[in-house]
Write a structure and sequence with these properties.
Strand order of the largest sheet: 1-2-3-4-5
Number of helices: 5
Helix content: 25-40%
Strand content: 25-35%
Radius of gyration: 18 Å
Order of helices and strands: HHEHEEEEHH
Structural class: alpha+beta
Distance between the termini: 41 Å
Shape: globular
Largest sheet: 5 strands, antiparallel
Length: 140
């Protein structure tokens, strides 16, 4: 069997667009309203949290669950990215919230009072692939 030189493999692989986890999960737009609502649930000893941007993905592993990544500025520590999981529909305006909001990465757990997803019956792992996908969507 003939082997392709490594540079040929690299050239050929660059010609094909292999979807990333964020593309596979599908980046969803979200209005500023809901992410700002998430940030109102800040810990009492946390300074001001200021919304910067947000993105969301629908979980491929849980029914009707969305992962929302929110970039925000926190007093004294600069920009942070928290990720929260919500069940129901992806809220876009007041009255849309139909389910639970859970903190699913360490930043969300540190800065807000929303229940820790890994300590609830949902058992959302802190390394769930949708967390990385939602964060990757922020960078697009």
């Amino acid at each position: 069997m003939k082997r392709l030189p490594i540079f040929m493999v690299l050239v050929l692989s660059s010609l094909f667009n292999i979807p990333s986890a964020a593309n596979a999960a599908g980046c969803l737009s979200i209005t500023k309203w809901y992410p700002k609502e998430i940030l109102t649930g800040k810990e009492s000893d946390t300074g001001k949290l200021s919304f910067v941007s947000a993105s969301a993905v629908k979980s491929p592993d849980f029914n009707n669950v969305y992962f929302v990544a929110v970039k925000f500025k926190a007093t004294g520590v600069g920009s942070q990215v928290g990720v929260w999981a919500i069940n129901g529909k992806l809220p876009q305006k007041p009255g849309d919230v139909s389910g639970l909001t859970l903190s699913v990465n360490s930043i969300a757990q540190q800065f807000t009072v929303w229940p820790d997803g890994n300590k609830t019956q949902a058992q959302i792992a802190i390394n769930d692939r949708s967390i990385g996908a939602a964060i990757k969507c922020l960078k697009k």
